[in-house]
Amino acid sequence: MQHAPPLVLIHGFPLDAGMWAPQVTALSPTLEVIAEDLRGFGADARELPAIMPMRSHAADIKEMLDARGIERVVLCGLSMGGYIAMAFAERWPERLAGIILCNTRSNADDEDGVAARHAMAQNAREKGMEVIARGMVPNLLSEATRTERPAVAELVTRIIARQKPETVAATALGMAQRPDRLPVLQRLKVPALIITGEHDTLMPLPTSQVMADAMPGARLAVLPGAGHLTNLEVPELFNRSVQLFMEEHFGR
Ligand code: MLT
Fold first, then answer.
1. For ligand 1, what atom is nearest to the CA of residue 11?
2. How much distance in Å is there from the Cα of 251 to the middle of ligand 1?
3. Ligand 1 neighbour 12 (Cβ under 6 A)
4. Looking at the 3D structure of the chain, how many domains does it have?
5. Looking at the domain assignment, is residue 152 inside a domain?
6. Is the CB of 80 under 6 A from ligand 1?
7. Which ligand 1 atom sits nearest the alpha carbon of residue 172?
8. What spacing in Å lies between the alpha carbon of 40 and ligand 1's midpoint?
9. Comparing C-alpha atoms, which of 174, 165, 162, 178 is closest to residue 49?
10. Is residue 132 part of a domain?
11. 243: buried, middle or exposed (CB in 10 Å: 19+, 13-18, 0-12)?
């Protein structure tokens, strides 16, 4: 049986690797799973510049892989994690064995989007992360998740509230600078899986469809009942999609 490449999970914004707990638990018995905090998030103590572009987060991942002697991986990024996976794919396509893009999009921010990033950076610094968390959570989870699984909403609120305002500000400003990376996907020649949630209002289905269309052979999985944080909202469905993808392409 072919040996599966490590699966690197890249978290969303403004979260940390704690969001991947259901995947680490379920997938680790059969796969090498790496889920680490991005620079400055969670328990990570590395400093960030005032603006932290997606390509710099991607460079940190490349450095981590080099340090561990890992040549090729499957990158699985959710939302901002997807932006970082695409930035990685642009610079180091030869290090990718496959890519899983969840609840994300390839296009750049428009003018309103950039303005919202600046407002986010300012609010994080001035109002603090508790306020940001309360404002964001309703948009991150489907109504069903919020009403039927309040523990998920509490967990997401806790994760956001524990982030450092300076990290959040620098990364928000970094996201605002990212270019359209659809051409990166069009050039990429590796197995691809696109996952989204039926009720993701932040990244509506057409954004996933565009990415799937850019990569011939890519599979698109729309997970019922979920909003933006599919991996936490419907973890069994999410894990199954990833497992099937890994089995199909890498024999695991
Ligand atoms: C995320 O979940 O990572 C964010 O929604 C990404 C973004 O703000 O564009």
1. 3
2. 32
3. yes
4. 1
5. no
6. yes
7. 8
8. 16
9. 174
10. no
11. middle
With a 6 Å cutoff on the Cβ, whether 104 touches ligand 1 is no
The CB of 175 under 6 Å from ligand 1? The reply is: yes
Give the pTM: 0.98
Residue 218 Cα to ligand 1 midpoint, Å, equals 22
CATH of the domain at 92: 3.40.50.1820
Closest CA to 207 of 135, 104, 117: 104
DSSP state of 18: G
Within a domain: 173: no
Q: What are phi and psi of 10, to 5 degrees?
A: -115, 120
Count of residues in the chain: 252
Q: How far is the CA of 10 from the centre of ligand 1 (A)?
A: 12
Q: Which residues contact 29 (CB under 8 A, 6 or more apart)?
A: none
Instruction: Walk along the chain (252 residues) and give the pLDDT tens digit of each residue.
Output: 458 999 999 999 999 999 999 999 999 999 999 999 999 999 999 999 999 999 999 999 999 999 999 999 999 999 999 999 999 999 999 999 999 999 999 999 999 999 999 999 999 999 999 999 999 999 999 999 999 999 999 999 999 999 999 999 999 999 999 999 999 999 999 999 999 999 999 999 999 999 999 999 999 999 999 999 999 999 999 999 999 999 999 996
Cα-to-centroid distance, 191 and ligand 1 (Å):
24
Residue of the CA atom closest to atom 9 of ligand 1: 80
CA–CA gap between residue 239 and residue 248 (Å, rounded): 14
Let me know if residue 26 belongs to a domain: yes
Q: Is the Cβ atom of 174 under 6 angstroms away from ligand 1?
A: no
